[in-house]
Amino acid sequence: MGHDGIAIGQLSRRTGCNIETIRYYERIGLLPTPARRGRYRLYDGKDVGRLAFVRSARALGFTLDEVRALLGLAAAQQDACAEARGIAAAHLADVRNKIADLRAMERALAAAVRRCDAGEALGCPLIDVLGLGSAAP
């Protein structure tokens, strides 16, 4: 694309982000509408950095709304740390709750698999755990 910017394919390769995802992020306002040369989008270093930020935040499980809020805080820079910490703390609490839920699911599934392996129960222990065992209509 030359010295005036990079094409969407190159942005995709630099950041590891799918082209359709880049376009989606533009549509929802996480990435600004890029300059154009004809029908080609042109990105710059700021766009690479912003997309890397979005990808990192998404990899940590932040929602799109949380990412949008963090981007706003990053742009404001003054007193942003306390608000960013609040967003991160709330997200951390959600992650911990999900981990607890996953551990409970793991225990229930492991118990059902052990019962299946033991072969002592009539019917299927997994289906029984799910609630459709012998009580099915």
Descriptive notes:
The chain is mainly α. The protein has a domain at 1-61: Multidrug-efflux Transporter Regulator, Chain: A, Domain 2 (Orthogonal Bundle). Helices cover 66% and strands 4% of the residues. It contains six helices and two strands; from the N terminus they run ααββαααα. The protein has a two-stranded antiparallel ribbon. Strand 1 (35-37) and strand 2 (40-42) form a beta hairpin. It is elongated. The model has no long low-confidence stretch (mean pLDDT 88).
Any key phrases for this structure?
66% helix; Multidrug-efflux Transporter Regulator, Chain: A, Domain 2; mainly alpha; 137 residues; two-stranded antiparallel ribbon
CATH class category of the domain at 1-61: Mainly Alpha
Give me the side-by-side strand order of the main sheet.
1-2
Shape: elongated
Radius of gyration: 24 Å
Strand content: under 5%
CATH domain topology of the domain at 1-61: Multidrug-efflux Transporter Regulator, Chain: A, Domain 2
Q: Topology, please?
A:
Blueprint: H1 8-15, H2 19-27, E1 35-37, E2 40-42, H3 45-59, H4 64-76, H5 80-118, H6 125-130
Antiparallel strand pairs: 1-2
Helix pairs in contact: 4-5
Short description:
With 137 residues, the protein is mainly α.
